[in-house]
Design goal:
CATH topology of the largest domain: Immunoglobulin-like
Shape: elongated
InterPro entries: CcO_II, CcO_II-like_C, Copper_CuA, Cupredoxin, Cyt_c_oxidase_su2, Cyt_c_oxidase_su2_TM_dom, Cyt_c_oxidase_su2_TM_sf
Cofactor: Cu cation
Subcellular location: Cell membrane; Membrane
Protein name: Cytochrome c oxidase subunit 2
Structural class: alpha+beta
CATH superfamily of the largest domain: Cupredoxins -  blue copper proteins
Membrane topology: Multi-pass membrane protein
Distance between the termini: 92 Å
Strand content: 15-25%
Number of helices: 4
Strand order of the largest sheet: 8-5-1-2-3-11
Number of strands: 11
Length: about 290
């Protein structure tokens, strides 16, 4: 018996065409159902976000994952499904031979370009929202990253109160809830990076470059902060805590800090005790 070439039946084609978009919609619906922020699975690994700026970044992150998952499912469905659907069903059968499919080839060429444009435009939009500056922030904190800790300066009654950490003492950055906080970033030595995961924001602290960004905390609580730049031998010590408190507690904190002369200065302390210490040939403070 000779080999025979089966013909595609219209019924099979119609069922296949109907099943493909249906499967895509099912996958998309399942993915979109995870857009809440209750768990890390629903946030796709992101920590719980407690700032207005961070919410925009979280939504971009979720959207990117959803798009990637849908694209992956469709791609794998085509890779695995086509050989199974058009497989040889008997020894004397030759499956339908298709040398090319122009619509699919056009789709595979155009769709990635559309995705890149969409990702780029959304990233720029979210970046502009996250880095938008209010001309009159409620609180301005001068943040100084130095080897190997942080100094936080805040204005109070015409002067500045500050806390500075050490390798053994992790400092607390206290800020009020629901207020616009501007972090002005300074460094007297090397590049550091000031980041707070719960706010989904971080930025390089570059010597000679006055970087800054603003956040609006939305929940009272205690959060971790760290340096995200490998800045040297004791980079791992550059940790700090962020305490978001009520406005009344914040004012009480500043008043209590101002009672200690060691925590008061006429100008922001830019570098703590390291600012006045020269750096030797090995890049270390003397």
């Amino acid at each position: 018996m000779g080999w025979w070439h089966p013909e595609r039946t219209r019924g099979a084609q119609r069922r296949f065409r109907r099943a493909t978009p249906l499967a895509g919609f099912v996958v998309l619906a399942l993915a979109l159902s995870g857009c809440s922020t209750d768990t890390q699975w629903e946030r796709f690994g992101m920590p719980e976000i407690t700032s207005k700026q961070g919410e925009h970044i979280l939504h971009l992150w979720q959207g990117a994952w959803i798009a990637a998952l849908v694209t992956g499912v469709v791609t794998w469905a085509l890779i695995i499904g086509v050989p199974l659907w058009f497989r040889r069903r008997s020894d004397d059968e030759v499956p339908v031979q298709t040398r090319y499919n122009l619509p699919i080839e056009i789709f595979y060429t155009i769709f990635p370009v559309i995705m890149v444009i969409a990702f780029f435009s959304q990233t720029v939009r979210v970046q502009n929202l996250a880095l938008e500056h209010d001309d009159n922030p409620d609180v301005v904190v001068t943040v100084v990253g130095q080897k190997w800790q942080w100094t936080f300066n805040q204005p109070y009654e015409g002067e500045y109160v500050f806390v500075s950490g050490t390798g053994e003492d992790i400092p607390d950055l206290v800020i009020p809830v629901d207020k616009t906080i501007e972090f002005q970033l300074r460094s007297p030595d090397v590049i550091h990076n000031f980041g707070i995961p719960a706010f989904a924001m971080r930025m390089d602290v570059v010597p000679g470059n006055e970087n800054s960004y603003q956040v609006t905390p939305t929940e009272i609580g205690k959060y971790a902060g760290k340096c995200y730049e490998l800045c040297g031998a004791y980079h791992s010590r550059m940790l700090f805590n962020v305490k978001v408190v009520s406005e009344a507690d914040y004012e009480a904190y500043l008043a209590d800090l101002a009672k200690n002369p060691d925590n008061v200065a006429e100008q922001p302390v830019e570098g703590g005790k390291y600012a006045k210490q020269p750096i030797n040939d090995e890049g270390e403070h003397e």
